[in-house]
Amino acid sequence: MSDRKPLSFQDLILTLQAYWSRQGCVLLQPYDIEVGAGTLHPATVLRALGPKSWKAAYVQPSRRPGDGRYGENPNRLQHYYQYQVILKPNPSNLQDLYLGSLAAIGIDPMLHDIRFVEDDWENPTVGAWGLGWEVWCDGMEVSQFTYMQQVGGLDVDPVAGELTYGLERLAMYVQGVDNVYDLAFNDPQSPDFKTYGEVFLENERQMSAYNFEYADVDVLKRQFEDMERQAMRILTESRGPQGQALVLPAYDHVLKASHLFNVMNARGAIAVAERASYIGRIRDLCKACAAEWQKQQAGAA
Amino acid sequence: MPQLLLELFSEEIPARMQGNAARDLERMARERLAEAGFADSAIRTFAGPRRLTLVVDGLPAAQADRSEELKGPKAGAPPQAMEGFLRKVGLTQEQLVERDGVWFATVSSKGKGTADLIAPMVDQIVRNFPWPKSMKWGTCTLKWVRPLQRILCLFDGTVVPLDIEGIKSGDLSEGHRFMGAERGAFSVRDFDTYRAGLASRYVVLEADERKRRILDGARAACAARGLELVEDEGLLEEVSGLAEWPVPILGDMDPSFLDLPPEVIRTSMRTHQKYFAVRDPKAGRLAPHFLVVANIEASDGGAALAAGNARVLSARLNDARFFWDEDNKPGNFDRWLGKLKGVTFHAKLGTMADRVERIAALASEIAPLVGADPAVAEMAARLAKADLASGMVGEFPELQGLMGGYYARAAKLDNVVADAIHDHYRPQGPNDVVPSASVSVSVALADKLDTLVSFFAIDEKPTGSRDPYALRRAALGAIRIILENGVRAPLDRLLSAALAAALESESPLAAERFAEHLSAEGYTSTGREGSLMADLLRRGISDGWDRTRSSGSQETEFFDGQRLLELESYCRTLFPPLKAFFADRLKVQLRDEGKRHDLVDAVFALGDDDLVRIVARVEALDKFLATEDGANLLAGYKRAANILRSEEKKGPLPEAGRALRLPGAPAQEITLVAALTDATPKVETALAAEDFAAAMTALAALRKPVDAFFEDVMVNSSVPAERDNRLRLLIQVRDLMGRVADFSQISR
Predict the structure, then answer these.
(1) Which is nearest to B135 in space by CA: A49, A57, A43, A133?
(2) How many angstroms separate the CA atoms of B186 and B55, rounded?
(3) What pLDDT is recorded for position A287?
(4) Is 50 exceeded by the pLDDT of residue B277?
(5) Beta-strand pair B167-170/B148-155
(6) Which of A74, B175, B542, B556 could form a disulfide with A179 if both were Cys (CB 3.0 to 4.6 A apart)?
(7) In this structure, how many other beta carbons lie within 10 angstroms of the beta carbon of residue B63?
(8) Closest by alpha carbon to A201, among A83, A78, A81, A30?
């Protein structure tokens, strides 16, 4: 990469944290509900809406049950980490800020080929879309760079810039490693050195088996319906101390429903025709939360 | 003369949009300059990853002064009219002149300075630019393809002041994102300093120049290693829009991947990585290398980035290898066919497995028409769509068919079957090869006919530019397969076979559509007797009537008769639009080959639906009309037809029949009677043998007698028997010619 020693997985995270902290971001911790992507953290999906400015950065464990490979594929995981940055409104030098973060983790743009390649981002389950790029480093996609235009079917105004780094991939690149499980998790010189495999391989094996073979579809289906009902009930019937609808707990239930759907999908329990209908149900809930949140934000501004 | 220079500098513009953006910018500038009276200025536009540039040379410093005469009220019009007119033109009545009782005013206006016109022009262009997708950013309310960072706008070396939603114009541009960064933004005076400033900051302005550098550099890099670049125009276009300073670099690929099909390697390189493949001309196959076009001249000569790209490619090809190995596991085709049951083809047309059933039945039906073994054709059709469920086609949909062919060979299936699977999507476009092996023809034709009949049955016909199911391509493909292989079957028969396959299959669609039709038409049956109906259709409806009548069983006659009526009614609804659709496509095809469309109409008017015969007729007709006999006979035909038409208005024409040699008839009449007597059997024989050239030759013999007849014989004789006989002669000429083509449709 460069003359200096490549960063371990955790140092990569610490470096990004320090960098984005310097840019004025609130450093959050991961959201404590299973999500498929860092975008779904309320710090992005909800905070992108409304008129208030917001700068945040956080690591988010992301669960994609269908991507599990029992720990046997060097590139695919059902549980991995994204580093997520959201800046609203996006600063006009967002590309430069982003490139600064690559420099901070040791990627020299005079040695490596950094490109912004068209990629229109869309997340139908939250009714969100934006325009931007995949950022390539020597042909490897290392980040997603998006100007978010809509969330929950509502205009993001002012526009938020969203950066998503695939941490394992980036670390593999920085460390020059071909197998994710060989990544140095902490400092290889440390007496307590651990690889990524030592930390997560067993998790991949067990979770893959559960997701693909043992998750109980009937239970999942029932739970999905419970979550769906709860989300709607909370949103429409409950009120907080200031009289506001309880959109945050409602949204938590939407996230849970969304994860349950992903597990059912991985389990092969959802027919092609049903898929669209499930996604539509989640999107409707998301839209309802988004609309309520925006209303509250506009009122408070 | 003064020059206008405009640069719209933004964050990275998608490569695929750059070409159109340059054209749109040119068009919008041209329209607006023409409106301002600068029609003949020289416009050039450029598009690249981060900028759109417009340069206009030969602009005057100001518009010419204008003077125009406006027509006012008539002399003596009410005073209000005159007052209104004077207000409009800003003159007094003394300044008007009166001509022919009307007042005229001469209004002159001073031309505006060009710089003043440019600001609103640029403002309009930026606000109305037709990006396929545009966005907002930050708090800016402007929409652009990606955030617009700078506007450089100079006229005659001076900044044209602009403020578009807070973006102010200036004279600054900037160079390459990385290599030009050190020197920062630079100020520009005109196009020459702009272009040179960019070049010294590692930006190639012209897309064609970027392409040339890529191609030259890539070829040279390959040649230095004794290799050849696999050229790819579409990819070249794309990568030239991804780099401001393109640097082709040859990288190494692990040679062990060369055991994958070359199409897989190329597709993976192209779609995922935007690399060119490299060929080893001595070995006659792909070489273990790739060519990547970088956007920097790396400080280490590109070693690190070549190695990085090679690692990414290995990961990609490892994925492909995984799919290839998984896909080739025993039992693959059965597994995939099972999966197709869960894949919806179209909500109203059932699953992909239903479609496979239909195509298999249809292919075995078509097989005997093209000399294929029905069992083999059916088997090939049954397997043709299986690869849609394979891992590789899931990853690279464009490899459908092709992978099926590979997997079939690996599974030791007959080569004939593997080829049919491989080729059954063909022809995919006007330059694609048409299958010629008989089994491949059966499956390829079945694939297209099923598509057409199915989508027409659910009323999903193409409209205007909308053709989401590519039915036009399917029809054109079917036509080319039929013509190039000389498949002799009336369209009616092929469509009936396709409908039969649909009625018989388990898929709900056909039966439901049929049932809907029946109930709408007031028939009592439900149409849910798929195989019976299919059987009747396959034997042909008219044969069905004969067999039913001769069955000797009243019951058979009643029930089959009922079904035949229902089928006839459905076919009458479904087939005519389909046949018209084929006719339209065939016309387009023949027109593209340079055939006159009126000849196509003349042949179609005969109602023939054997495409091979139709084309043979059109070709013979084309040649015939190019001869002197042909052209003259056409004139004779038109004259005959005109006379008949006008006589018909006066009263009924004599009953058709052969004209006689009336005693005392003029020699020319007798000659024509003889010529018709002679030509008629010749034309009939030739037509029966489908020897259209011979039929035309036989008709040509009529030309002189017809000309002479019109020259010397008066058709409208006052003797009724003579008149009738002569009209009969003309009817005979018209009808005999009409058996070859409908000459009335031919314009010249």
Answers:
(1) A133
(2) 18
(3) 94
(4) yes
(5) parallel
(6) A74
(7) 17
(8) A78
Which residues of chain B make contact with A112, given a CB cutoff of 8 A? 298, 304-305, 308
Structure tokens belonging to residue A123: 């997340």
End residue of a domain, out of B199, B223, B252: B199
B306-334 pLDDT, tens per residue? 999 999 999 899 889 989 999 999 999 99
Q: For A144-169, how does the pLDDT look when each residue is reduced to its tens digit (9 = 90+)?
A: 999 999 999 999 999 999 999 999 99
Residues B104 and B124 in one domain: no
Is B34 domain-assigned? yes
Q: How many beta-carbon pairs below 8 A join chains A and B?
A: 110
Shared domain check, B96 and B49: no
At residue A1 the predicted structure's pLDDT band, cuts being 50, 70 and 90, is very low
Contact yes or no for A110 and B314 at CB 8 A? no
Write down the ipTM of this complex: 0.94
Of the residues B131, B137, B299, the best mutation for testing chain A's interface (the one with the most A CB atoms within 10 Å of its CB) is: B137
What digits encode the pLDDT tens for the residues B46-100? 999 999 999 999 899 888 887 888 888 888 888 888 888 888 888 888 888 888 8
Token pair listed for B69: 């005469």
pLDDT digits (tens, 9 = 90+) for B159-189: 999 999 999 999 999 999 999 877 779 999 9
- Residue B289 to residues B153, B183, B265, B378, Cα–Cα distance (Å): 45, 36, 11, 41
| Contacting residues of B for A137, CB less than 8 Å apart | 308
In this complex, is the C-beta atom of B183 within 8 Å of any C-beta atom belonging to chain A?
A: no
Kindly state the tokens that stand for B636. Answer: 């004779």
Of B146, B242, B344, the CB nearest to A117: B242
Best interface-test mutation with A: which of B167, B297, B299, B312 has the largest number of A CBs within 10 A? B312
**B694 and B574 co-located in one domain:** no
CB contact under 8 A, A139 and B292: yes
Same domain, B563 and B588: yes
Contact between chains at A173 and B139 (C-beta distance less than 8 A): no
Quick one: closest CA in A to B306, which residue?
A138
β-pair type (A154-166, B163-164): unpaired
Residue B516 has pLDDT above 80, yes or no: no
Q: Which two tokens stand for residue B48?
A: 């690249």
Containing domain of residue B303, as a range? 207-327
> Is there a contact between A173 and B308 if contact means CB atoms under 8 Å apart?
yes
Of A74, A112, A158, the CB nearest to B138: A158
B507 three-class SS: coil
- Domain-located, residue B245: yes
Q: Answer yes or no: do A111 and B298 touch at CB < 8 A.
A: yes
* Distance from C-alpha of B256 to C-alpha of B264, rounded to nearest angstrom: 14
Alpha-carbon distance A232 to nearest alpha carbon in chain B (angstroms): 30
What strand order describes the sheet that includes A114-123? A26-27, A54-63, A79-88, A154-166, A140-151, A128-137, A114-123
Please indicate whether residue B198 or residue B548 has the higher confidence score (pLDDT).
B198
Quote the percentage of chain B above a pLDDT of 90: 56
Give dist(CA B535, CA B558) in Å, integer: 17
Query: Do B118 and B103 fall within a single domain?
Result: no
Residue A67: name the closest of A175, A166, A199, A174 by CA: A166
A178, B315: Cβ pair inside 8 Å?
yes
Give how far A61 is from chain B: nearest CA, Å.
Answer: 23
Cα(B130)–Cα(B126) distance, rounded to whole angstroms? 9
- Distance (Å) from the C-alpha of residue A237 to the closest C-alpha of chain B? 35
pLDDT at B103 over 70: yes
Q: How many domains does chain B have?
A: 5
Q: How many residues does chain A have?
A: 301
Q: Do B309 and A112 touch (CB under 8 A)?
A: no
Inter-chain residue contact B305 with A178, CB threshold 8 Å? no
